[in-house]
Amino acid sequence: MRVVPAASLALVAAALLTGCGSDGDQPDPGSTQTVTPADVTGQAERLIGPKMPEGSTLHCPEALAAQVDATTTCTWSIPDGSSIGMTVTVTQIVEDTASLNFTNDDSVTPSPTS
């Protein structure tokens, strides 16, 4: 199996926010604006998916707060049964768009049957 090193998988993408309506570049401190798990997954699959082993799937269970430096963790499941974590970080908010940074963990978690 070929796994691309994590450093080469740090990418930035834009994802639309849900719950729009903020009047500035940054949502209000008590804002409930988020980037949905589906938006995070879609962006990551489009940008990083082609670099993962064929048949890999991504699971992002939580919405991502629409605040700079907010993070969430996703997991790539690789067909051989192993997995690799991925941290998603909001790097910038401009109007209703969040810029996201995707960084895979440095190591793969082996399959429980390995």
What does this structure look like?
The model is unreliable at 1-9 and 19-27 (pLDDT under 50). The chain is mainly beta and 114 residues long. The protein has one helix spanning 37-47; strands spanning 11-16, 34-35, 57-59, 64-65, 71-77, 83-94, 97-104. Strand 6 (83-94) and strand 7 form a beta hairpin. The longest helix has 11 residues, at 37-47. The radius of gyration is 15 Å and the shape is elongated. It has one domain (9-18, 34-104).
Q: Hey, roughly how much beta strand do the residues contain?
A: 35-45%
Oligomer: single chain
Q: Helical residue percent?
A: under 10%
What is the 3D form?
elongated
Question: What about the largest sheet?
Answer: 5 strands, antiparallel
* Classification by helices and strands: mainly beta
Count of DSSP-assigned helices: 1
Low-confidence stretches: 1-9, 19-27
Provide the gyration radius in Å. 15 Å
As for the number of domains, it is 1
Break the fold down into its secondary structure elements and pairings.
Blueprint: E1 11-16, E2 34-35, H1 37-47, E3 57-59, E4 64-65, E5 71-77, E6 83-94, E7 97-104
Antiparallel strand pairs: 1-7, 2-4, 3-5, 5-6, 6-7
Q: Could you provide a short overview of the structure?
A:
With 114 residues, the protein is mostly beta strands.
Task: List the keywords.
7 strands, 114 residues, disordered N terminus, mainly beta, single chain, 5-stranded antiparallel sheet, two-stranded antiparallel sheet
